[in-house]
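In response to a reviewer's request, we include the raw inputs and outputs for one of the modeled complexes. The two entities were modeled together in a single run.
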Amino acid sequence: MNGEKYKISLVFWVMFWQLFLAGLALGDTGTIAVLLSDQEKVYRAPVEIFVDEIGMPVGIYNLDGDIRKAPQVMAEIFSANPSLIFALGAKAAFIAKTWTRDRQDIPVIFAMVLNWERYGLLTGQKNIAGIAHDVALSTQLANLTMFSSDIQNVGVIYSEEYSKDSITNAQLAAKKLGINLISMPITRPHDFKRNFKQLSDKIDAYLVLADPVIYTLDNISWLEKRCVRDRIICIGPSKNVASQGVMLALDPDVKNTGSQAVSIAKNIIVLKKDPQDIGVMPPLGTRLYLNLKTAAKIGFEVSPAVVDLATEIIE
Amino acid sequence: MSRQFPIQMKHAALLVLFMACFLFPRMSGAASSRHEFYYFNPDSPQSNLGSLKREMDAFFSQSKFAVSFQPFIHLIDLERKIKDSGPSFLIVPQWYIDDFGRANGFEPIITPAFKGAVTYNKTLLISKDSGIGVKDLRNRSLAMTSMGHEGEKKINTLLFPGMNLKAETINLVIVPKDTDALFALALGQVDAALVNKESFDRINSLNQKILQPLISLIDSEDIPMPVLCYRKGAVSEEDLKILIGIFTDKENILFPKKIMEMLNIDEWRKIQN
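The model returned the following structure tokens for the whole complex.
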């Protein structure tokens, strides 16, 4: 009889601890707060995918473009005891960072922040991870090399102020891909043309950077014509440049940013990864644009296999 | 009296115009019963859905079968469109049919085949330098295309049957296409990638340097090819027969070779129920 009582007691305690631990685990997957900078349509698709795929309760908050709303919005967010904040746009990212300075137990993932480095989003805090707005230069180089195995030398003009780190990373990637990246720094937009002329007979292809010193209307318009004249394959950072005449462009699949944010969120919440260890990832989903008219002008024969890999053909 | 006459004429004219708009398309045989045909195949090496749509539109037009063909990159867009306007036909992965399709009235009728096989395989890749084995994938990142809302369960069945490893312990990073997964791995942005073997072969044929540092850890179990389904109640027996005919009729060879190459198949077969 004592043996029976002991067994029942043991079963009871085992069940109790299992329920207790399960309760602790459930407590870890509280509401996720999605914080939007404003009503921009561009946020809708990634948020929709995030909400659809995360498999956890989500609350959506909006600064409506007004940082003065931050105290009220953040008070609402904190009252829900969020397990994570997903911040879209520069305002939301900055506010989420600032307001979690003393609440670094709440991880923050940011996305869709142009030139995120300018806002010091990772500085001084350990709870921030993010997805960069621009496709990594290494990914642009990898896509470029699919078009021709003859591409050995790729040129890029950049400003140290905005693109120094990107170029350093791109050099490492170029080495991995077995190509030679020839980079030239400039400090003023009107130095671009002169430098490109010095570069053009040394390269097979050119990387157009979304660098504020380089990326001016005048420079890009001039570059499109020059690449055709010098028969250089150019790859740029947006569909617009391909539409205007650059042969190739690669930009982020914005909808997939939502999926990527889900993966980072699960990495933090479920797999207990430190946001610091994740850092800022490049967007992994991309869209490749191919301007066939420019390819024909350059005299570049595009194989059907390569056409099949482009997300969109511009004719 | 004379005022009423012009008003009556005006009403009669409007009525005739209204009837003309309604009747004329039917009399000319145009597509009042135009079928919606959706396509979603994230494992396809074919990323250029614009070209695919153009070719499929031309094919259906030549076949005189009224179809509006719409390919989708993202599962969420396909799901929304199906909910809104319920297509007559779908080409979707088998897992979609198993998870949602049958419950929503879709029935597979035709399957593609390639070199006699109605299945394909994915391969799990890592960087040679990483030294990662299958058991080391826990807590690492794996880039792959969507396998639906219960992707982890499918990965467990396809990749890890009988192994002491669960996809729930791996950080799955969903990307829209295999090339994104391959490049992310090649550039060290993720620890592993799961891609259609055909996608790997295609990129490799274009530039071996990119994928040379990668090796395959394991191949998946056989995955059924995406199937062509129809929605019960939305398609007449006659239209169903016509569609099956234009896809599978080897005598006429109606289905264009170009589209077959795009889809990486060489025939369509009726599914025997």
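As requested, we also summarize the result in words. Chain A touches chain B through 45 residues (CB under 8 Å). The longest strand of chain A covers residues 153-158.
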